Amino acid sequence: MKKRIALLVYPDFSLQEVANLMYIFRWYFDTFTDVIYPELNPVRSEEGILINPVKTCSDFCKDDYDCLILSGCSDLRQPIRNKKIKEFLGSFVNDDNFVIGAICSSPIFLAQAGLLKGKNIRILYLLR
Q: Domains (ranges, CATH) in the chain?
């Protein structure tokens, strides 16, 4: 175990969906989280909290991480159009060994990048 996980963020990502996950990894498994984004600019979560990425998608090296986590997002309109996010995720298309966890609405990013083709997935999405 490399003792590092990567969290891919984007505007309006849900911090509350990953906060406890990061806490558990940090304090129970001594595993740190690095925040990844296409640029090193601060990114505002859906809760209004600014998060500073420590690494860009182009600087990401999967050999340094145990997994990549994607949080849900309250408003997908802007991040779903981000070509750099799509290209970054698309780089994992033929890699069945690297673990990617997608929470809530984030599997749409994986689908858009082609990672879900030929895969059996289960998604529960409730509409009111």
A: 4-112 (3.40.50.880)
